[in-house]
Amino acid sequence: MSGNITFTMIKPKAVADGNMGNIIAKITEGGFNIKAMKFTRLTKEQAEKFYAVHSARPFFNGLVTFMSSGPIVAAILEKEEAVQSYRNYIGATNPADAAAGSIRALYGTSIEANAVHGSDSDENAIIEGAFFFSEFERF
Ligand code: UDP
Ligand code: MG
């Protein structure tokens, strides 16, 4: 399993903009197999916990407020080299720097509202997946 799994969220602004379906289609077109998917909403406390690694960063409070501002989609994705492959596919953190055709270039509107999350390591993919999916050990 390790190495083949990543975790993603479609962030509140992309959902509010009506791009949930487009982004899910783009994810599957990229060869990512959806292992689990949930439409949900984070509380402020859950967003703080999810992004705890960034708690000292100047953008932390804004990010937590944003990520708990509306519904999101959380999903576990499977593909060979899933973490790196998905990060390449979604593009740079700032949509302005993201490669043309990437999810963030297409659907991101600011460095904060950059359409999607993507795990940064195999270890974090598992931690983040388990944060949302209690049945994750079966995947
Ligand atoms: N972020 C932000 N301002 C910044 C950097 C990041 O609002 O200057 C937000 C953005 O939504 C990003 C998230 O914080 O996706 C986590 O930042 P990270 O550096 O981990 O970027 P990512 O791994 O998502 O590309
Ligand atoms: Mg990150």
Features:
4 strands; four-stranded antiparallel sheet; alpha+beta; Alpha-Beta Plaits; 139 residues; binds uridine-5'-diphosphate; binds magnesium ion
Summarize the structure in words:
With 139 residues, this protein is of the alpha+beta class. The protein has a 4-stranded antiparallel β-sheet. It has one domain (5-138): Nucleoside diphosphate kinase-like domain (Alpha-Beta Plaits, 2-Layer Sandwich), CATH 3.30.70.141. The N and C termini lie close together (8 Å). The protein is built from 7 helices and 4 strands, in the order βααβααβααβα. The longest helix has 11 residues, at 122-132. It has helices spanning 12-16, 20-29, 44-50, 60-67, 82-90, 103-107, 122-132; strands at 5-10, 33-40, 72-78, 116-118. Helix 3 (44-50) packs across helix 4. Bound molecules: uridine-5'-diphosphate (UDP) and magnesium ion. Uridine-5'-diphosphate binds at residues 54, 59, 63, 93, 111-112, 114, 117, 120.
